[in-house]
Amino acid sequence: MEFRTFGRTGMRLSILGFGCGAVGGLIVRGDAADQERAVARAIAAGVNYFDTAVLYGDGESEKNLGRVLQKLKPADVVVGTKVRLAPGDLGRINDAITTSLEGSLSRLKLDRVDILHLHNPIAGEGGGSALSARQVLGEVVPAFERLRQQGKIRFLGLTALGDTAALHEVISAGVFDSAQVVYNMLNPSAAEALPQNYPAQDYGRLFDATQTAGVGVVGIRVLAGGALSGSAERHPIAGPAPEPIGSAMSYDADIDRARRLIPLVEEGFAASLTEAATRCALSHPAMGTILVGMATPGQFEDALAAVEKGPLPQAALDRLAALRQTFAGEVR
Question: Which domains does the chain have, with CATH numbers?
C-alpha cells in the first residue's frame, strides 16, 4: 500500500481510504459479517483511514464502524467523521457542533476522532443548508478549535462543496487541515483548467489552494457516485444515485459521458472504467487519500486491485483529456 503525507498534519495516510458512506452502503446497511470482513481485510491490506459521518444512515455508519473497530482493535487507524449543521442551528453553532461530536464519539466508541469535517456546503451568502465563508471562519472554526483544545479532535476539516470562490477563500485562510475535494474523470477541475463551456462545476484548480495552504486532500466522488462504472445498475443496498455532484446535473448524463470514456479500456490503459477512475484519482500529487464507496467486500477488493496498479500513465491521462474535450459545449 502506498502512503502519502497528509498536508501539514504529519500523518501518513494510505492512498486508499475506506469510505463508510450511504452511496455504497456497506457500512450503513450491509450484513454485519460482511462489514467486519471488509474492514478487517482493509486493515490487513494497509488501509489506515476510515471516513464516516453522522449523516450516513442517521448514525448507523458510525455505530457499525465503531462496533467493528472495537472488536478488531487495530493499531494506528485514522478515523474521520463529520458534522452537518441544520438551519435551526445557526444561532447556536458552537453548541450544535459540540452535541453532534459527542454523539459521534459515543457511536464510534472513541474518546476522540482524528479529523472532524464540516459537512455543510459553503456559499457566498449562505442560506438553506449552506454556510457563508464568514460563518465558517468566524463561528465554525472557533468551535472546532475548542474541541481540539479539549482533546476530542486532532485536525479540522471541511467538505469542499458549494461555491468555488467561497471554497477558495476558506481553504486559503489556512485554518483547516483537511479538505474533501471532488476529483474524477468527469470533472478534473480541482487540478486543471476545464475546456470552455464544459458541463461541470469549475472548482478553479482548488488543488493549488490546498497545496499552498498545506491542506491534506481526501478525494471524494472518485467514481461519480457509481456513474463511472458506465452502468446504471446499482447494488440492492446501495443508496440512490446522487445528483447533481459537481459533474452533470443528472446521473443518467454522467453515465452517458462515462461510457464515452470506454476507449481507455478498449485501448488497454485499464481493465475497466472503475479501475481507470480509481487510478486516475491517484494521479495528482495533491491527493492524500481517496474514498471509493462500496456495497460489498468484493467491491473493496476491486478498489484495492486498482490502487495496487498505481496511477494511470501519462499517455492514459492524455487520452482521457482528449476524450473529455468532446463534452465541451454540452448541456450540463
Answer: 3-325 (3.20.20.100)
